């Protein structure tokens, strides 16, 4: 069953399908229920399509803000964010391979403002604003870019405040003359990030809306049907959209700062990712997202924006559980997350302290894990030898008391105790490396530090080996390890079958897994062969003494 389910997708990987653009959402006048005060138990639930696209109007200029980390472009039409280039990361998408990562989709800006109150809605993204500068360079002291504009007696002021060493910037705004107090600001966060990965289908599967109320909540794009609108109730400290490696979020984390009232998401179009025995599967490519923010009577509002990588250490330093935006382990998160975080920190620490390429770090890490398990393997070997010695006596007990289950259990436990045998003694060394292996699977699938990192002939440790050398070496090492481990063991048809089946199956399974994961597993197997050989030789010596 497992081969039938998994093998087709391994042997026939999905073709890359071009991202299909979604039809623009209407910018017609909409209404929001008045925002509940922050002290209320639950915010009002707005019923509105997320405002993700400004209306066409007079030509707008782009003001560029450049820091050592990014190059952001803000339009004079509504002050929205229309470009977000991360200078430290390169795109692997076919259309712009080698260029700096661009996170904002063409024609779908972020930070699109819409104000509602007193039954009226004002689409601020239509306004032409005057910037304080045509170009901003973020220096050691930081920098500020301001926008101001007026229409029909209403005035809007926006201040964007940047720091040189952070992907986070602050937004402060003031609205005057818009009408009755107690308004709500609807902030558009686009339709999802622009895919910048070579495997766009895999990137789309990681697309999600992530929010933090009392705990983080993740809503995958794929969980929404096209056209389905869903309102996530707050209040939220932050809300954002993520891809596989990148994250854009609006943060309301300062003290006495109003929280975001709700997040509004609407299922977007899908594209075919693969065909299999179970039919065609699809992935969601777009989902319009917006959040609501109460505006006090004075008209002032504020929040922060994070536009950057899903880098665990950086996000954890910001606090507020932002590192949970990129959890490890899926439904196994409670088990895998702690191990994954530990493994990531160890690998990064080794990389920084030893100044070695991550490929060599993985090799050293694989050897260290096996060295730490060496004493446990020795104990398992001794337990296995004792178990083999009592096997004839155990068989006699089983034959004698086969019709008396309770008596059989007591006699078996007595035999184990007399001969100092632990029937599970050989299992622990086999089980302990598994959490590390599972953790590394998710680490290489989600950790940006390994994105695009080459090693020897491998172009990217986070992607599959294009020549399939590493998975084949891994499979061969697994076969040799199993073969050596069976030296001196009693003949067993099932064991002999598994000797050939498991290495072949694992090789096929790992063909399209991250090459870094295959590298670690191969090194771990190869370094285990000498100890397995010593164990087999001791087993033969024990058998020689008995004969």
Layout of secondary structure:
Layout: H1 2-11, E1 62-66, E2 70-75, E3 81-90, E4 100-102, E5 112-117, E6 120-123, E7 130-131, E8 135-137, E9 143-151, E10 154-162, E11 168-176, E12 183-188, H2 200-205, E13 208-212, E14 216-220, E15 229-236, E16 238-242, E17 246-251, E18 260-266, E19 270-276, E20 279-284, E21 289-295, E22 300-309, H3 312-318, H4 333-354, H5 358-389, H6 391-400, H7 405-418, H8 428-431, H9 433-446, H10 469-485, H11 493-510, H12 515-546
Parallel strand pairs: 1-8
Antiparallel strand pairs: 1-2, 2-3, 3-4, 5-6, 5-12, 7-9, 9-10, 10-11, 11-22, 12-21, 13-14, 13-16, 15-18, 16-17, 17-22, 18-21, 19-20
In short:
With 547 residues, this protein is of the alpha+beta class.
Molecular structure report:
The strands form four sheets. A nine-stranded antiparallel sheet has the order 7-9-10-11-22-17-16-13-14, with no helix packed on it. The chain has helices at residues 2-11, 200-205, 312-318, 333-354, 358-389, 391-400, 405-418, 428-431, 433-446, 469-485, 493-510, 515-546; strands at 62-66, 70-75, 81-90, 100-102, 112-117, 120-123, 130-131, 135-137, 143-151, 154-162, 168-176, 183-188, 208-212, 216-220, 229-236, 238-242, 246-251, 260-266, 270-276, 279-284, 289-295, 300-309. It has 547 residues and is of the alpha+beta class. Helix 4 crosses helix 9 (433-446), helix 5 packs parallel to helix 12 and helix 10 runs parallel beside helix 12. Strand 2 and strand 3 (81-90) form a beta hairpin. The protein contains twelve helices and 22 strands. It has two domains: 2-20 and 59-326, Beta-galactosidase, Chain A, domain 5, CATH 2.70.98.90; 352-546, no CATH class.
């Amino acid at each position: 069953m497992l081969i039938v389910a998994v093998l087709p997708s391994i042997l026939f990987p999905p073709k890359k399908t071009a991202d299909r653009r979604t039809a623009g959402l209407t910018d017609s006048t909409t209404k929001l229920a008045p925002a509940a005060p922050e002290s209320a138990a639950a915010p009002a639930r707005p019923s509105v399509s997320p405002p993700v696209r400004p209306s066409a109007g007079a030509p707008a200029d782009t003001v560029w803000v450049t820091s050592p980390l990014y190059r952001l472009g803000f339009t004079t039409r509504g002050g929205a964010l229309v470009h977000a280039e991360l200078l430290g990361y390169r795109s692997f998408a076919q259309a712009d391979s080698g260029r700096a990562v661009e996170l904002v989709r063409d024609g779908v800006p972020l930070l699109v403002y819409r104000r509602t109150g007193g039954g009226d809605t004002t689409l601020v993204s239509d306004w032409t604003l005057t910037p304080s500068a045509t170009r901003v360079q973020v220096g050691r002291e930081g920098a500020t870019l301001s926008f101001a504009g007026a229409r029909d007696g209403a005035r809007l002021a926006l201040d964007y405040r940047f720091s040189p060493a952070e992907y986070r910037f602050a937004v402060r705004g003031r609205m005057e003359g818009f009408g009755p107090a107690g308004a709500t600001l609807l902030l558009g966060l686009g339709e999802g990030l622009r895919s910048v990965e070579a495997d766009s289908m895999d990137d789309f599967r990681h697309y999600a809306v992530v929010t933090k109320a009392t705990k983080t909540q993740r809503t995958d794009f794929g969980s929404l049907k096209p056209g389905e609108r869903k309102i996530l109730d707050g209040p939220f400290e932050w809300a954002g959209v993520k891809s596989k490696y990148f994250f854009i979020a609006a943060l309301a984390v300062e003290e006495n700062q109003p929280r975001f009232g709700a997040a509004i998401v609407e299922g977007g179009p899908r594209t075919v990712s693969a065909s299999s025995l179970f039919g065609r599967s699809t992935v969601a490519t777009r989902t319009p997202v917006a959040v609501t923010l109460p505006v006090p009577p004075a008209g002032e509002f504020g929040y922060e924006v994070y536009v950057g990588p899903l880098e665990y250490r950086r996000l954890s330093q910001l606090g507020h559980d932002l590192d949970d935006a990129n959890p490890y382990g899926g439904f196994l998160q409670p088990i895998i997350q702690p191990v994954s975080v530990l493994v990531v920190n160890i690998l990064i620490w080794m990389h920084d302290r030893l100044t070695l390429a991550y490929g060599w770090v993985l090799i050293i890490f694989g050897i260290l894990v096996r060295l730490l398990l060496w004493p446990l393997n020795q104990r398992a070997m001794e337990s296995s030898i004792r178990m083999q010695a009592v096997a004839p006596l155990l068989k006699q007990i089983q034959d004698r008391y086969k019709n008396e289950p309770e008596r059989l259990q007591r006699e078996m436990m007595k035999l184990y105790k007399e001969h100092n045998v632990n029937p599970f003694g050989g299992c622990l060394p086999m089980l302990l490396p598994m959490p590390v292996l599972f953790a590394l699977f998710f680490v290489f699938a989600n950790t940006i530090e390994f994105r695009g990192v080459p090693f020897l002939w491998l172009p990217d440790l986070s992607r599959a080996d294009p020549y399939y050398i590493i998975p084949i070496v891994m499979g061969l090492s697994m076969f040799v390890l199993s073969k050596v481990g069976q030296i001196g063991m009693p003949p067993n048809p099932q064991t002999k079958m598994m000797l050939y089946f498991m290495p072949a199956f694992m090789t096929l399974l790992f063909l399209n897994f991250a090459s870094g994961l295959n590298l670690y597993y191969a090194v771990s197997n190869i370094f285990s062969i000498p100890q397995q050989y010593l164990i087999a030789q001791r087993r033969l010596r024990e058998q020689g003494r008995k004969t």
